[in-house]
């Protein structure tokens, strides 16, 4: 499948999806949103892919919704329609994908771009990168999932401040708040990212996917519901080839070789 606004590059089990509108700081237009959806679906269906990296071309990760896109001039293209078309399919795809998604935060992630970063399972950032809930600066509210993700990552009061003031949050401060997993010097970004991609490319992928589902459920479930889900997924995980390999390797006192099956 060919794309015009993203790059889809697979190396062994690691897939890198690059937002590729650097002249627009990778702002999201209709085409980019649709291609991201298609890329996520393609990644989920590709059994060779065991970890996905999302990053941006040029100086920015993603500057948010493209306010200059031609579709904004269409009479029926309301803000809610943009949200329904661009993000209703995409964000659940990312959260429900049974494979880890790592954001390589190489620059500003603003507005919907910040939402895309938060929708990933991990964020590895250049320490010069920034995140901003910039919606308020043009009199809008959070969208693309930010109002859901942000209060889960920081306190309610911090979420309120970040959302209502449009604060440009430096990566190091975001790391301190627990929004970013790692914030490192520019020259260390790819080396640090590689440590994570190599781990997940060789991890028991099906168990990782089940853990992702469990953690997603935990936001809306009580203890008894989670105990039941853990039991259900534990049965499913025990039937995978990777579980058999893990037990065998443990008994043989060697490192397991997981195949993601």
CATH top-level class of the largest domain: Alpha Beta
- Gyration radius, rounded: 19 Å
Q: Write out the strand line-up for the largest beta sheet, numbering strands in chain order.
A: 1-2-3-4-6-9
CATH topology of the largest domain: 2-enoyl-CoA Hydratase, Chain A, domain 1
Going by CATH, the architecture of the largest domain would be: Alpha-Beta Complex
How far the N terminus sits from the C terminus, by CA atoms, comes to 25 Å
The share of residues in helices is 40-55%
Number of separate helices: 11
Query: Outline, from the CA principal axes?
Result: globular
CATH superfamily of the largest domain: 2-enoyl-CoA Hydratase, Chain A, domain 1
Strand elements, count: 9
The main pleated sheet reads as:
6 strands, mixed
- How many structural units, i.e. domains? 2
Oligomer: single chain
* Elements, N to C (H/E): EEHEHHEEHEEHHEHEHHHH
Mean of all residue-level pLDDT scores: 93
Structural class: alpha/beta
Q: What share of the residues does DSSP label as strand, in percent?
A: 5-15%
Report the uncertain regions.
none
